[in-house]
Amino acid sequence: MPDFLPGQVLSAADLRTFGSPLEPYTPDLVAATTNPNLGSGAIRMGTWSRQGELCVGRFYVRFGTSGVNPGAGEYYMSLPVPVAVGGFPRVVLGSGWIRDANATFPAGVAPIVIDLALGTDPTGSVARFIVESTQTVRSSGPWTWAAGDELMGEFSYPAIWPN
Q1: What is the mean pLDDT of residues 32-44?
Q2: Which end of the chain is more exposed for a tag (fewer CB within 10 A), N or C?
Q3: In the prediction, which pLDDT does 39 show?
Q4: Contact status, residue 40 vs residue 9, Cβ threshold 8 Å
Q5: What is the DSSP track for 34-98?
Q6: DSSP state of 138
Q7: What is the reported pTM?
Q8: What's phi and psi for 135, nearest 5 deg?
Q9: Residue 157 and residue 145: Cα distance in Å, rounded?
Q10: pLDDT band at residue 18 using 50, 70 and 90 as cut-offs
Q11: Would you say residue 2 has pLDDT above 60?
């Protein structure tokens, strides 16, 4: 990023130098005991960019239409770059939604908090999902995950960038 002077008027081209362009990433959804099989027709997509020292992005995962197996245990998702944990015992990364495709709206939709799974992965490379303030999202909760179910969210965190 180039240096700018205080009070300098910046052009649109100058402003674009403050962050990196959006990069695609494919989030991996895994479970503590047995990984889920998202089935055929599943969607896993995400984008992220570097904004100064922050990694900012979003993700979307939808279970497929057939061959789905929810696996077993608490769910975790890979992050595009590791989090700079800085000794904090808990790091909240963002928020999102989960949706049960077999339930009627709004009963099958729940907000989630995305935080770092430090107890499971002290390297800061995976996130976990919290629903109803204390319950982790898992293969059997808050419902048994099945065809068409969705998990989506946005995150922003201080990242460990290579030199």
Answers
A1: 97
A2: C
A3: 98
A4: no
A5: B--B--BT-EEEEEEEEETTEEEEEEEEE--SBS-B--BSBEEEE-SS-B--TT-S--EEEEEEE
A6: B
A7: 0.85
A8: -85, 130
A9: 28
A10: low
A11: no
| Residues of the chain above pLDDT 70, percent | 91
The residue with tokens 């939604």 is 97
Confidence of residue 133 (pLDDT cuts 50, 70, 90): confident
What is the H or E stretch that residue 152 is in? strand 150-158
C-alpha torsion 135→25→71→143, nearest 10: 40
The DSSP line for 103-130 is: S-TTTTEEEEEEEE-TTT-TTS-EEEEE
Architecture category of domain 23-158 in CATH: Sandwich (2.60)
Per-residue pLDDT reduced to its tens digit, 89-103: 778 899 999 999 998
**Polymer length of the chain:** 163
Rounded to 5 degrees, what are φ and ψ at 86?
65, 25
Give the residue among 150, 152, 151, 88 at the shortest CA–CA distance from 116: 88
Per-residue burial over 43-65, b if 16 or more Cβ lie within 10 Å, else e, is: ebebebebeeeebbbbbebbbee
Whether the CB-CB separation of 56 and 49 falls below 8 Å is answered with yes
